[in-house]
Amino acid sequence: MSTSPGYRAHLRATLVLGLPLIGSNLAQMALHVTDTVMMGWYSVPGLAAVVLGASSFFILFILGSGFAIGVMPMVASAAAARDMAEGRRVTRMGIWLSLLYAVAVLPVFWFSGPIFRALGQNPDIADMAQQFMRIAGLGMAPALVVMVLKSFVAALERTQVVLWATVAAVFLNIGLDWLLIFGNAGLPELGVRGSAIATVCTQALTVAVIGLYAARQPELRRFQLFVRFWRPDWAAFARVFRLGWPIGLTGLAEGGLFNASALMMGWIGTVELAAHGIALELAALTFMVHLGLSQAATVRIGRAHDRDPEGLRRGAQMAIVLSLAFALVAVTLFVSLPRPLISLWVRPGDPLAPRILDFGARLLVVAALFQLFDAMQVMALGLLRGVQDTRVPMIIAALSYWVIGIPASYALAFPLGLGGVGLWLGLVIGLACAAVLMMARFWRGLARGAQAAA
């Protein structure tokens, strides 16, 4: 008779772990939203420059965050084995790799102006974006270290601190934006540079808060995370590198899919691009829920990996059911209330509002399919990372998004004449391929493990 916890226990554990992570992800998204809103109040050229710079920062951040994400299943597995030394070693080397990456990409930030101009951007906007990037680049190191520390505390099921630190960061960022962008309270008016400084300060204070928690909290202090931090551990360094670089490239492949879709939608028209952006914002909000559940699944699976096959199977099933249940709620909202949802992003009285509402409502209906497959693919990634399987998923993602998804989007949108709706159907096809292949890989691996243990 199995001694593994039942489904109700797995449900409770996944929610206790996952809800703070969901809240943290939504708060992280709020940081981006508040930056763009406040820059929009300041100036339209400034907004364009910050959007260009922030989106470029995000792409580089996603590529470098693989080491931080890779730390999570490794620490979870070490915690389950009560191996504090291993948890400390991989976390330290995750920080080392993140810092080395942050230094390596600094030239991209410093010389971003010529890069933007070479990519056809307006020279004035490119210069303003470079001002933003040169300051924001200093925030890459703390941003990535925050990710490592979040993975460390989440793997030890201490997710509340992640939530409250991120929520506090949102309010701090709003205050600093108000002071530095507009020059309030007697401070100089810095515009885009003020936005960048606010972001870097927020990242630095966040890493200090979570770092102090990891160093001082009684149950975490025994890991001695920062004692003799400068000493290299090349074996752990290599393990984190091997697990982490495919995760970064997988995130880059998915991020590139959506960047390419925005570029192609811009070829169709300005109204279509605006509606596309709004629909993606709505999809991103719901995606944060699935991402939080996926992160919880990574920890739960990491703790059960190689120790509790039945617990691993039940934990995976419960995480999938929770994600699917929320996806069905989102599908219902997108299908039944598309125009009211789109209207939240449209200024009343705008002469283009009717066209944006009509086109955006059509995209949200397609996004109903989008929801199901996007939820499945991010959950599959979380499960596979829990068993420390990252290289083949990277290949699956690259093939699904770039060999299937983008060509399908282009073919449906242009040669077949379906326009923006066809473009989104192509995204659904790419996500569906990734979701089915990754989920099949996880369950096949589980079946092979069960046979080997029999």
Estimated helix fraction: over 70%
Domain unit count? 1
Could you give the count of β-strands?
0
Instruction: Report the oligomer.
Output: single chain
Describe the structure.
This protein is an all-alpha fold and 454 residues long. The chain is built from 18 helices and no strands. The protein has one domain (7-447). Helix content is 84%, strand content 0%. The longest helix has 36 residues, at 7-42. It is globular, with a radius of gyration of 22 Å. It starts with 6 loop residues before the first helix and ends with a helix. The mean pLDDT is 87.
Topology of helices and strands:
Layout: H1 7-42, H2 44-64, H3 66-80, H4 84-104, H5 106-110, H6 112-118, H7 123-136, H8 140-155, H9 160-180, H10 192-216, H11 218-221, H12 234-268, H13 270-304, H14 309-336, H15 338-343, H16 353-386, H17 391-413, H18 419-453
Keywords, separated by commas or semicolons:
18 helices, 84% helix, mainly alpha, 454 residues
Concise structural overview:
This protein is 84% helix and 0% strand.
